Amino acid sequence: MKVLSLKASSSPPFPPLANSRTISTGDSMADSIEQLFTHKAVDKGDDVTLSCKYETSDPSTYLHWYKQQPKSKPVFLLYINLFGGKTNLMPPRLDVEVDKTNKKVDLIISSAAVSDSDLYYCALKPTVTGNPAALYKNLHTVLLH
């Protein structure tokens, strides 16, 4: 029996500050990030991988993951740079991997629980206190069935 449902959505649950997947960095090339799936269903206790594909010309880029509960602001979870350097204090049951060859970043949730039922965002820039344009349209939702 499937307990959790994962979805990617192009419509955030709050008014967007920007409506673009592409984030301008001032360079001639634009950086971007987008989700790689539209729906996943998982059982409680399963491991879950949420993936985003990125494009960047900046080798010092940090790829960020956020979590948002209903009617709340997004909360920073973790980051990884393109060389594999991660957040110093990783949240329990979460890990992150970057694949530079395929330009993909994965958030891995071990042993999915009901408490993981939230909206997950991938972003190229710090979003809660930084550039909000990187946040919108790059989201994954974990929902109960």
From TrEMBL:
The lineage of its organism: Eukaryota, Metazoa, Chordata, Craniata, Vertebrata. Residues 15-122 form the Ig-like domain. One of its GO terms (biological process) is adaptive immune response. SMART domains: IG (SM00409), IGv (SM00406). This is Ig-like domain-containing protein. Residues 1-23 are annotated as: Disordered. Signal peptide: none annotated. SUPFAM superfamilies: Immunoglobulin. PROSITE patterns: IG_LIKE. GO terms for cellular component: T cell receptor complex. The keyword Cell membrane does not apply. It comes from Silurus asotus.
